[in-house]
Design brief:
Blueprint (H helix, E strand, L loop, with lengths): L7 E4 L6 E9 L3 H5 L3 E3 L13 E9 L5 E11 L10 E8 L1 H13 L3 E2 L4 H8 L5 H12 L3 H11 L2 H25 L8 H30 L13 H9 L20
Parallel strand pairs: 1-7
Antiparallel strand pairs: 1-2, 2-6, 3-4, 4-5, 5-6
Helix pairs in contact: 4-5, 6-7
């Protein structure tokens, strides 16, 4: 069970050096703990003047260590329920250096936040009714898609493609159950069309079976297929591999046996 009173914080951008790093803080009153270390250039601005879904410029100081300056950042406060998690959310955009990111994370924790578990933001989005289970799974699929087609399938699921399929099948089942309940409520007055009912449920079964087969094929786009290029020396295996992946991964030479080690891509 989610404790919605607990404020969580985590790094939301890829680990590594780069231009922009993102820290997400979510939970009731997350703004109150964030303004402890976020200092806006406008000295007259207070917490009540910070508007939802607007971008602000601020400096971050380590208030627990002699106000040591940490970074100059942009941040956005998003008021519930119009957020990813369905809770009040702060997103801080700083320089993408792990030392800076960790310092800001530690500031948030010292100010009352808790380090988020893997997937906890998406878990809260599900608990708060922002997404269903199929969309929660799609978030991970979008992140880990290794081909444009896999990413396209994942995006379709994230937009509710699979949810709509499940909802349509569910409605078909409920419609048939309603017909059964009407006959049971009027026993001796109304008769049940068993042949029609059996045909309807058989069509639902066929539809489900078809969707499962499509799903099994689709999964191969995520797991991938292992293909080995095997042949005699100097027949063009390296050139073919480079052509398929559109990279110069394997050394190409007229000398037979140049590529002797296993090359994967």
């Amino acid at each position: 069970m989610i404790n919605n009173s607990k404020i969580i914080v985590a790094i939301s951008s890829p680990i590594g050096k780069g231009a922009i790093g993102i820290i997400r803080i979510s939970g009731i009153d997350c703004l109150k703990i964030s303004v402890k270390f976020l200092f806006m250039k406008s000295k007259n601005m207070n917490i009540t003047e910070i508007e939802s879904h607007k971008l602000y410029y601020a400096s971050i100081f380590d208030i627990y260590n002699n106000n040591e300056p940490i970074d100059e950042v942009m941040f956005s406060y998003m008021k519930a329920p119009k957020t990813y998690t369905g809770e009040d959310t702060i997103e801080i955009f700083c320089h993408n250096n792990i030392f800076i990111l960790n310092k800001i994370i530690n500031l948030a924790i010292k100010s009352g936040a808790f380090l988020a578990k893997p997937g906890e933001f998406t878990e809260r989005a599900f608990i708060n009714g922002k997404i269903d289970l199929t969309k929660a799974e799609a978030v991970l699929s979008v992140i880990h898609a290794e081909s444009s087609y896999a990413e396209k399938i994942a995006q379709n699921q994230l937009r509710g493609g699979l949810s709509k399929i499940i909802e349509n099948i569910r409605n078909e089942v409920l419609d048939n159950l309603k017909d059964i309940e009407v006959v049971l409520d009027h026993e001796g007055i109304m008769d049940l069309d068993y042949k029609k009912l059996a045909k309807n449920f058989n069509n639902i079964r066929k539809n489900l079976t078809q969707k499962i087969k499509i799903g099994e094929k689709t999964n191969k786009f995520y797991s991938g297929l292992k293909i080995a290029l095997i042949g005699r020396p100097n027949v063009g295996k390296s050139s073919l591999l480079n052509s398929i992946i559109d990279q110069d991964k394997a050394i190409v030479s007229d000398v037979a046996g140049t590529t002797r080690d296993l090359v994967e891509a």
